[in-house]
Predict the structure.
Amino acid sequence: MNTIKPILAVLAMSVAVAAGAQTLKMEPQVAGITTYEASTAVNLVVVKPEIKLDNLDPSIFTVNTNGTERNVLSVYPCDSRGAFNPEGEYIALGLEKAAGRGLGLSINAGVWREEYSVKVGLKKGKVLKVGKQKYTAIECETDKALKDFVSEADYFNKGTFTGKNTGKSGEVTLTYAAYEPWSLKGDGKANPLIIWLHGGGEGGLDVSITLLGNEVVSLIRPQIQSHFTTEGGAGGAYVLSVQCPTMWMGTSKGFGHGDYPSLYANVLKDCIDNYVNEHPDVDPKRIYLGGCSNGGYMTMHMLIRNPKYFAAAYPTCEAYMDQYISDNEIKALSEENIWIVQSYDDTTVDPKTHCIPTFQRLVKAGAKNVWMSMFENVQGMDNPGQRLMGHFSWCYLFNDAVSHSQEQSEGDVKPSNDGGGSVAPQGHANIFEWMNAQVLTDPEVTNPRW
């Protein structure tokens, strides 16, 4: 009996310790998505604890996203969308940016992948105190993507437009997102409009994919917005990003490179017309069209089909094969304002069969305001020293690093990572300042508001 009593005493003590070792349950709510030049990253996690917390020390929390341990920089009370609210029932955990891929949601067949794990816990040996209660563990985990995520896409108004297919019967619906800053909507002045057409991997029915898949949201950030001015002299521009269900390069004959009209040629033009007509503060003389790869193809396609409609175009790694552009079309294009962007080491869209011969033919045809930035390769700027795929030349555009053009000649191209060339088009510092300066003056343009 003498040996049993000490054992019972130890067991009683263990039960008492276990009773005080509480586990706090939290429910994952949303993730905050930040878009970078080559990927997205989850840099914010919003959770709902079962009780209101009054100890928000970031040093005691651990967060694991998609198998990667993250450094927690901040913890604060918030609403269900992560906005600071001292009385909020939720808490947001701000995470330090981590190097490497796989930190953000990825795209699969035009939709966000569902698999993405998030786990919130306490560091070993740390205790979370809430009043007189002490918690030594947190139960908070999910292996599914938090679809209702927070991102810069929230600054865009979303909509759809339905119109007829081109080259076959039936109708098709486009989705779009529009950035319309209040500072411009209420100024009573005419405002420039920047249009972006997505690449081959961002088609579908969720326009957030077009905005976040290629850092299109950089177009609404202050650095790029500051290059644009309104009729009244204020800074900024509207941004319209349009998404088709599949690829802009789809035709009634299958996948095309310019040999047949895009299925979406008419509906896209109608969508743009409709948007401009519904927004009388958009300046029809200052509509700027661009896109990457598949969207660069569509940019060229729209210029050919709608001469003198767009004040300027900025096709990037454009996939419209030069062999399908006729001499008459080259002559018409030579009168447009165009700035092409590409990397010489692009193995997805070969510049030697696409933009380079087109640029040389345009110069030969007498083009005065057609330019081409040709980079040697794609060097990352978010993570200096990181070399990206040669096809990712849109990274230079969205990093506001396109500043020079090749010589306007039919001679050899000299790729340069110093802005893309050696010539400052019209003396402007970068592609966006050049774009801002382009205004239609031809009264015969096909814009319905003229």
The longest strand covers residues 22-35. The first helix runs from residue 4 to 20. Residues 153-437 form a domain with the Rossmann fold fold (CATH 3.40.50.1820).
